[in-house]
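dumping these here so i dont lose them again. two proteins, back to back, each one seq then structure tokens. dont judge the mess
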Amino acid sequence: MKPLSRLFAILTAMLPCVHAIGQDYPARPVRMVVPFAAGGAVDTVARALGQKLAETWKQPIVVDNRPGAGGNIAADHVAKAPGDGYTLLITTQGFAISPGLYRKLPFDASKDFAPVTQLTSSFVVLVASPQLQAASVRELIVLARSRPGAINYGSTGIGAPPHLLGELLKSTTGTDMLHVPYKGDAPLTQALLAGEVQVAFMPLAGVLPHIRSGRLRALGVSGKGRSATMPEVPTLTEAGVPLEFTGWLGLFAPAGTPRDIVIQIQREMATVIVARDMRDRWPAWGYEPVGSTPEQFAAKFAADLAMYTKVIRDSGIPLQD
């Protein structure tokens, strides 16, 4: 057989095998890596989605919490995992912040991952401890101006969205508050409840029960409009602070994951997030389902990488080691 004919025969023989990869997926449990501690907003969503996918795939979805280093521990683990679709990363827009925040990362966010889908868009809520003598954003600003450095605001890590939002709040209102970072939503929530910090920007999912019970006070939401879950809470703009922020949850696979598998995961995840029982839960969590294509999410991720690098540079936030 001539060399070209032999190569053609080999490639032709391989085609059914490539197609079979997508057809047979998943043939074993899939791990969904979460960069935050158990009990937080992202963990809650990951477990809910994992349960729905397990029903569809007839395979277990194992949620693997790997908090720390601003989400970089989890991202590095997924970057080095085999590109076979059995290890996925569910993370926030904070993943687009890290490349502009750290001097050096053990992975390349642009090259070591395959964007699968933007799962959701979201807002955050500015919450305060009831012990703080501020029942509104305006009262918080007045209090912070009268006591520079006396109010602590918490975040889920240096350079994480709650940190950037806290710094934007300070610069926009001319106030001085002390930043205290934590390793995820759950420990930050506990710090708020214990009075270690007085205010923080938080996803609605993790703090709504505490707002309902009166253990935390909602001062404002970061979206363009009010939350359907808490229509009585004003937007930050309505409260006198021209600050808007919409975040996202996204799903990534290691680079090199077969295209068939990436598309399959995206399509099935897009179906899961709008299932009736999931659709009813999103508002209480502070999210709206999106389910974008891999191409759409890749474009958004690239744009966010560039945007956050510029924000960090312009804000003068020191690069982290």
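---- next one ----
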Amino acid sequence: MSRSVTAAPDPTDYLDAAAAAAVQVAFDYKRRLDEALGVRRGDTVVDIGCGPGTDLGALVATGAAVVIGVDRDPLMAAEAARRAPAADVRVGDVHALPLPDGSVDRARTDRVLQHVADPSSALAEVMRVLRPGGVLGMAEPDWDTLAVAGDDVETSRGFARFTAGRVRNSTIGRQLVGLAARAGFGIRSVEAVPVLFRDFDLADRILGLTRNSARAVEAAQLRDDVAATWLAELADPGTPFLAAFTLYLVTAVKPTHP
């Protein structure tokens, strides 16, 4: 199997494509997440796992007094600082945030907790840096809900299982409420957002249909000829394409009293 087929995409390119997909697939979850977060003028807000700074500009535009971006990857942090010079971008890990206790009014994570080693520890860190009454907004997918429509249902299911299995915390979306409650947060809002793709090329970029089916073949989870036929049928411009998964939006509040 060709390395170019199975190779992971450039991280910055992928994150930019995923952000653009928020518009193209008609699920405006970022706006809904930020509205629920309720950033006020004068707030200090942190985007945890800010990547290349995709959302920092929008946070600056809210009138927040201080916008902080944190990412563990120095290259991502450098790109975020370049794109959002008005933000304070720092290199740091979600399990040990480079922020003082009780220094933040609003915190957000967008598709970050699915990848971290210990989501409970990460939420404990957010609890530490938030002021009493501070709000945390989270957006995370539930990859067990991934479905690809096609005549070969078993191959579609096999692809979905394999893809979900490659994500460290594949069901984190449905777990957010419980994790936040156990960390001591009060739950303010919960929303399940369907993420729907009608275009094969866009779905291929975001879901890795070609890339992950090739990896599944290499792992002996799918047969090469079956996967090739499945992909060709999905890519056929004469056949309607459909794929979807569920994204969960949760806002949680740090209690004002111990």
